Automatic annotation (TrEMBL):
Its main location: mitochondrion. Residues 174-585 form the Choline/carnitine acyltransferase domain. GO terms for molecular function: carnitine O-palmitoyltransferase activity. It comes from the Eukaryota. The lineage of its organism: Eukaryota, Metazoa, Chordata, Craniata, Vertebrata. It catalyses: (R)-carnitine + hexadecanoyl-CoA = O-hexadecanoyl-(R)-carnitine + CoA. This is carnitine O-palmitoyltransferase.
Length: 737
């Protein structure tokens, strides 16, 4: 209360002599500086809206157009072909301007209209150019003249440095594939998985669907695609993620890991200080749109950046039938969990971001706080880990007013969530492999109550300085979070750095008010639901089997020498590991790799089959019609779900001089109860990191066994491509894991 009392800008006391007014100039100064920062941000946003609104032109090009028109008018030439005179005739009579003034005003209006027309034309041309996809299917080194001309035009129209969202209005709409093409590709993909009778039955169902219901559903889908830039995304977000009533922990959320071999500091508070600072520096770049738009690797083709908008200050709030993603414009604090207590930590003071050393100081205050959790507080986070409907009911009944709402608002409106974990994690000790697996499980689910799984992402900082994050999936795909985490790790280790004794750098303002402890009034009914949700979450967490391992025998460098795509190679290795039904022919291996690469390209150009079939299924549900074909397709389990986490900012990591600063990437839980979830990240030229997950309850799956099969499959495929590789490996056994 003392800190709250000091924060009040003015106080007054009523006395017999009148009102005694006391002003707190320090508080008033902070209010002024905070307001100044807010106005600067507003001005910056307005400026960015103008800059990206006229892209690919620039605001200064307006002046060039005006000067050019005025110059031609001065030379007794009318480039407007009479339009300037028409504009002058229709100027309001109330404008008491001279004849020359009216002419200048008419020129300004015409120039502005011409400038806006040119912007729209340039934007339309850029959209047409970005709709060209043939380049993706051309062989490396055999680029056609048409593609070379196209690439030159794209570079010309993209020559001005763009802001993060500059390309959004120039990106083409996602095309709707034809029903015939999608069904043909689907049947081709399931043919190896079905017996003869099963494939004939599925072929018959597909033909019946195409002739009857399919074309009707396709018309509705094309109608949606006319006005929606992406006909899939909103339905995918709602029906695949937000409407799911099962726990999002393990089933949906995923994790990202720290460096594999090093920990920049073993001081927990210091690591938290730098990590939080780096994340807010990234948020500043997002808000100012200073990040370069992501592009398809090795090209100038921009990717959609819309998912970056909800990265911070975002929470998935539970509903009885569907969840809702809530996003707030800005937040100057984070929510922190430690030993069963929740805190609000302000990271801005008087309009400035606290230094890493000041944030460390505040974190240490939390670590040193001896106060116990209030009744029902310590495991409250289990509500976000269990089934969604009970959490929605508890939130509506007990967290919609009073002290519980105020504290819940502090968590949900926070920039992100931070857990100060009492455990030590990482690849350490006498059994580093087992500890690495435990580290993955900790980031995936923790204790099931010490993370807030509804937040867009939660940062975990362990007692030994190791860190990681857990991300909610509905607001963005993994590459968006991976980009954030790459920046955070690189900024932490290489830019912010630490002192010789492992503390953060910077000065401390010791008058900082301490972090605010959140208060709760948790009734018995909520505590009972917390216990039930924790039991559900604990059973799910105990069932998860995780295995993380770095594959060091070779990396993308050797694979590229074999003239194969590294991603295709790894995908084939995963298939081989799953089925152990080898390709004994070199030619068949290359054919399979080329097939995977072609399917990848089709998916990149909007011709993938799963999203199209999913949207057709959604339309059928809206129309209240049943399709045996779609019902069977959408009910098929994903027994081998794979994902590559791309390294997008390799320039931030100097792996030549600092090869130990290698990130492990991240992983996710199994999609099917009897299947595997496999994530992999290709690091540099010499390493590929794998994250494998499955469930203990399935007797047919084992993450460690499957990990061994992946390693063996990688070796087998490389030996098939390069018989000398096996002999070279025997000669250098130290390189093997």
């Amino acid at each position: 209360m003392a800190e709250a009392h000091q924060a009040v800008a003015f106080q007054f006391t009523i006395t017999p002599e009148g009102i005694d007014l006391h002003l707190s100039y320090q508080a008033l100064s902070q209010i002024y500086l905070s307001g100044l920062r807010s106005w600067k941000k507003r001005i910056s946003r307005i400026k960015n809206r103008i800059i990206k609104g006229v892209y690919p032109a620039s605001p200064s090009s307006w002046l060039f157009v005006v000067i050019a028109i005025l110059a031609t008018m001065y030379m007794q030439s009318d480039p407007s072909m009479g339009l300037i005179a028409k504009i002058r005739e229709h100027l309001p009579l109330s404008l008491s301007l001279s004849a020359q003034g009216q002419t200048v005003l008419s020129v300004l209006l015409f120039s502005t209209l011409l400038w806006l027309s040119l912007i729209l034309a340039l934007r339309f041309c850029l959209k047409l150019l970005l709709s060209y996809h043939r380049w993706m299917f051309e062989l490396h080194g055999r680029i056609s003249t048409k593609t070379k001309v196209w690439a030159t035009l794209v570079r010309l129209l993209s020559s001005r440095k763009p802001l993060l969202y500059s390309y959004q209005t120039s990106l083409p709409h996602l095309p709707v594939p034809s029903i015939k093409d999608t069904l043909e590709r689907y049947l081709e993909s399931v043919k190896p998985l079905l017996d003869v009778d099963g494939f004939q039955r599925m072929t018959r169902l597909a033909a019946e669907f195409e002739k009857s219901l399919g074309n009707r559903l396709q018309k509705y889908l094309k109608l949606k695609a006319l006005w929606a830039t992406n006909y899939v995304s909103d339905w995918w977000e709602e029906y695949v993620y937000l409407r799911s009533r099962s726990p999002i922990m393990v089933n949906s959320n995923y994790y990202g890991m720290d460096f594999l071999y090093v920990t920049p500091t073993s001081t927990q508070a210091a690591r938290a200080g730098n990590t939080i600072t780096a994340l807010f520096l990234y948020r500043r770049k997002v808000n100012r749109e200073e990040l370069n738009p992501s592009r398809i690797p090795g090209t100038v083709i921009p990717l959609c950046a819309a998912q970056c908008e909800r990265m911070f200050n975002t929470t998935r709030t539970p509903g009885e039938e569907t969840d809702v993603l809530q996003h707030w414009q800005d937040s100057e604090f984070v929510a922190v969990y430690h030993r069963g207590r929740y805190f609000r930590l302000w990271v801005y003071r008087a309009g400035r971001l606290l230094s890493p050393r000041e944030i460390q100081y505040q974190i240490q205050r939390i670590l040193d706080d001896p106060s116990p959790p209030s009744p029902g507080e310590d495991k409250l986070g289990a509500l976000t880990a269990g089934n969604r409907t009970p959490w929605a009911q508890m939130r509506k009944q007990f967290f919609s007013s009073g002290v519980n709402k105020r504290s819940l608002d502090c968590i949900e409106k926070a920039a992100f969530f931070v857990t100060l974990d009492d455990q030590e994690e990482g690849m350490m000790g006498e059994n580093p492999s087992v500890n690495l697996d435990r580290y993955a499980k900790s980031l995936l689910h923790g204790k099931c109550y010490d993370r807030w799984f509804d937040k867009s992402f939660s940062v975990v900082v362990y007692k030994n300085g190791k860190n990681g994050l857990n991300a909610e999936h509905s607001w963005a795909d993994a590459p968006i979070v991976a980009h954030l985490w790459e920046f955070t790790l690189a900024t932490d280790a290489f830019h912010l750095g630490y002192t010789a004794d492992g503390n953060c750098k910077g000065e401390i303002e010791h008058s900082l008010p301490p972090p605010q402890r959140l208060s709760w009034d948790i009734p018995l009914q909520v505590q009972m639901q917390v216990s039930e949700s924790l039991a559900v979450a604990q059973a799910l967490a105990d069932d998860v089997d995780c295995h993380v391992f770095p594959f060091r025998e070779f990396g993308k460098g050797r694979i590229k020498k074999m003239k194969l795509s590294p991603d295709s190679f790894v995908q084939l290795a995963l298939q081989l590991a799953y089925y152990r039904d080898r390709e004994h022919c070199h030619k068949l291996l290359r054919k399979a790799a080329e097939k995977h690469q072609n399917l990848y390209r089709l998916a990149m150009t909007g011709s993938g089959i799963d999203r199209h079939l999913f949207c057709l299924y959604v339309v059928s549900k809206y129309l209240g019609v049943e399709s045996p074909f779609l019902k069977e397709v959408l009910s098929e389990p994903w027994r081998l779900s794979t994902s590559q986490t791309p390294v997008q900012q390799m320039e931030l990591f100097d792996l030549v001089n600092h090869p130990e600063f290698i990130s492990l990437g991240g992983g996710f839980g199994p999609v099917a109860d009897d299947g595997y979830g496999v994530s992999y990240i290709i690091m540099g030229e010499e390493m590929i990191n794998f994250h494998v997950s499955c469930k203990h309850s399935c007797t047919e799956t084992d993450s460690h066994k499957f990990g061994s099969q992946i390693s063996q499959a990688m070796m087998d495929l490389m030996t098939l491509l390069n018989p000398d590789f096996k002999e070279a490996t025997k000669a250098n056994p130290d390189k093997q894991s």
